């Protein structure tokens, strides 16, 4: 597997748990705590995404690489579930970009992880560092309804856990997920590439 750096380009347009759902779940009606609910909502989604290796709501990322995989015919995309490949860009020695023609590759979004399969080895970039950029969209879909219910529940449980312990000065995120969240995310964990 080549060295690859994922860079977020477009965040999700909504969260898998709406602000109203979060407010009701946490039983918050004090407007002074609405910002906290919003913060917990985003943070919990990001933790569930990190734990599972999956993007919950559609979002666009750029994968930056120095070189193609050793076999040169298939590139595993570490962001799942893969929806589409927007562009494959190569840089020449003068750092000028050029797009790889869409008919030069096939997007296998059905695989887990998704793959970009090339009919023949793609051209090598002229720039030795960060010579390849691949823009992809990944996620279960554009709306919360597209996200599997166990993952939405995991987001709610994380929000509740953090909200209940918001005054705990010893709260450490490195202790792992709460026990009640683990069985919800376990079936969705992807294998690390």
The first-to-last residue Cα distance is: 7 Å
What summary fits the major beta sheet? 5 strands, antiparallel
Note the overall shape: elongated
Number of helices: 4
As a whole number of angstroms, the C-alpha radius of gyration is: 19 Å
State the order of secondary-structure elements, H for helix, E for strand: EHHEEEEEEEHH
Oligomer: single chain
Describe the structure.
This protein has 193 residues and is of the alpha+beta class. Helices cover 24% and strands 23% of the residues. The chain has 4 helices and 8 strands. It has helices at residues 19-26, 34-52, 149-164, 182-185, and strands spanning 4-10, 59-65, 74-76, 82-91, 97-99, 105-108, 115-118, 132-138. A 5-stranded antiparallel beta sheet has the order 1-2-8-4-5, with no helix packed on it. A 3-stranded antiparallel beta sheet has the order 3-7-6, with no helix packed on it. Helix 1 packs across helix 2.
List keywords for this structure.
alpha+beta; 5-stranded antiparallel beta sheet; 3-stranded antiparallel beta sheet
Summarize the structure.
By secondary structure, the chain is of the alpha+beta class. 24% of the residues lie in helices and 23% in strands. The strands form two sheets. The protein has a five-stranded antiparallel sheet, with no helix packed on it. A three-stranded antiparallel sheet has the order 3-7-6, with no helix packed on it.
Describe the SSE topology.
Elements lengths: L3 E7 L8 H8 L7 H19 L6 E7 L8 E3 L5 E10 L5 E3 L5 E4 L6 E4 L13 E7 L10 H16 L17 H4 L8
Antiparallel strand pairs: 1-2, 2-8, 3-7, 4-5, 4-8, 6-7
Helix pairs in contact: 1-2, 2-3
């Amino acid at each position: 597997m080549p060295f690859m750096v994922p860079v977020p380009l477009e965040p999700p347009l909504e969260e898998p748990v709406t602000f109203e759902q979060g407010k009701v779940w946490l039983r918050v009606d004090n407007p002074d705590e609405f910002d906290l609910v919003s913060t917990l909502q985003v943070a919990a989604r990001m933790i569930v995404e990190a734990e599972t290796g999956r993007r919950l709501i559609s979002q666009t990322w750029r994968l930056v690489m120095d070189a193609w995989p050793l076999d040169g015919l298939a590139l595993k995309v570490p962001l799942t579930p893969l929806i589409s490949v927007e562009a494959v860009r190569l840089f020449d020695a003068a750092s000028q970009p050029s797009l790889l023609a869409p008919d030069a590759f096939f997007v296998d979004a059905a695989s887990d992880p998704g793959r970009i399969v090339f009919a023949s080895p793609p051209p090598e970039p002229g720039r030795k560092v960060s010579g390849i950029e691949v823009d992809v969209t990944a996620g279960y879909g554009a709306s919360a309804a597209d996200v599997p219910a166990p993952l939405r529940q995991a987001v709610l449980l994380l929000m509740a856990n953090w909200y209940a312990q918001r005054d705990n000065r010893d709260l450490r995120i490195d202790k792992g997920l709460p026990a009640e969240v683990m069985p919800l995310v376990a079936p969705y964990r992807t294998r690390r590439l």
